[in-house]
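Fig. S4 source data, part A: sequence.
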Amino acid sequence: MLHRTHRRTALLPVLIVLLFAWLPLSALAQTRAWLEQDSITAGDSVTLHVETDQGAPDYAPLNADFALSAQSSSRQVQWSNGGMQQRNLYTVSLTPRRSGTLLVPSLQVGSVRTEPLQLQVGAGTQATAQSNATAFVETEVDDDSPYVQQSVGVVVRLYFASQLASGELVLDTPSGASLQRVGEDRTDVRQVNGRRYNVVERRFLLIPERSGPLRLPGARFNGRSAGGFFDDFFGNGGDGRMNAVSPERTLQVQAQPAQAPQPWLPLHGLQLRYTSAPDSGRAGEAATVVVEAIATGATRAQFTDLPVPDMGDAAQVFAEPAQYDETFNGSTPRLKITRRYSIVPRQAGTLVVPGPKLPWWNVDSGSAQQAALPDLSLRIAAGGAGAPAPQPIDTDAVLPGAEAVPSASTAVPLAAAATRPWPWIAAAVGLALLWLLTLAWGWRRGRPGSAAAPVRASTTAEAPAVSRGSVAELRRALDGEGFDQVEARLCAMAGVERLEQVIARLADPAQRQVLLDLQQARWGGQGEVAALRARLRECFRDGPHWSTADRSADTGLAPLYPTRRG
């Protein structure tokens, strides 16, 4: 009995150590959900984030009070306590179906559930306070406590019940920040307290330059109405002047954290994906990889470029200039970056293309994160340059001499050598006589006044017709396909393998120059892609203009007809 009690006492410290080791792991594996904002205006949307190491969340309970859109998922890599942890981030855009205090219900995520969240949805404080105003202005920001150099979306809405004859909507740049207008104005019609208003929505990007309080002045509107019955009815008669000012806002700007990754990239979210990822290729030929990044809360000037994979001596990598698309998600800026890479393997085998990795700072959770894509493994086959070289002929084996011993593949049996091939000799003599008769007939047809000239003219006129179908395919490639397809069409029409050979065969200087500019844009990142595509369409609208010297190249054979004299 005493021995059993001693064993239990010895196991107690081990259990305590295991308990303390399990607690940090359970904290790291915790599933959490949060809203991008806790209060919005009716008609706007808010983004729900769910971070977990479990499966995808079940969004079905959200359909009762919200309309769902823009669902996405990404894998995040976080460093915590000296270790790396991979987690999944799911986002969905929620548009409330009614105003008031709404409850975002608990969601089932794998074997756990998230905490319920509360969202305040209102018609706007300005509209409630000025229910009978002919015009009023409201200002909305997507983050009241941003970080330094974080892109803050600012939306200014002008409500007016009368038709406008003229007007001006102004938002002054605050001290300690930069402010720029983004995109075109958007118009809408809304009912506020039973009155119909026309709404003009204008978007701005605010970038704080230092930490501390940031005073955002109210937006001002000065205008004149066109007049009408409703202006007199609501007490806005007279000269039709309309003035409105929105309340000023004060933002609390946070300093850049000491543990933030560099370069400093504060975002609400960052997603990476392959839009084109091959699994095989050929040595010496380009394989195209296309990467797309979607950054929520960034602008083109702020976002760092997508990195170029380092392949060392295994392959050459040519990166085209990135394509940018700037939009807004509610009041938050959204940037989509697309970049195309052409990877040329040097040899056959397995080629591993490192996946891009971008460190960034999550402004919603206040943590350093990294967006990453998995490595690509390509099976590379031998290309044209990798074909086995022809074996030299063993001439020593057929030279006469006492020491010469013919091999099995070149030795001729004596019986076969003694038998002369009389049928073949007769056939060769007949072909020679036929060639002489053809030569004489051609000489007579080539004299002046003969009918041979129209035949030769029709033959040369038919040559361009062979590539007429290819010209149509070239036009389709220039209109909507990538530069890889354009190059492939030109090489196919020229019957060559490389674009340099196509340039050498062209007779038109403009066509040669635009193809040289294409190479500079694709491999050197120089030039505007859209303008270059327009030049390609213009120069090749009627197909390539081939050089006559290339078509009449010397083949090393005697001409079929003698040269015409006189």
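Fig. S4 source data, part B ends here. The chain has twelve helices and 29 strands.
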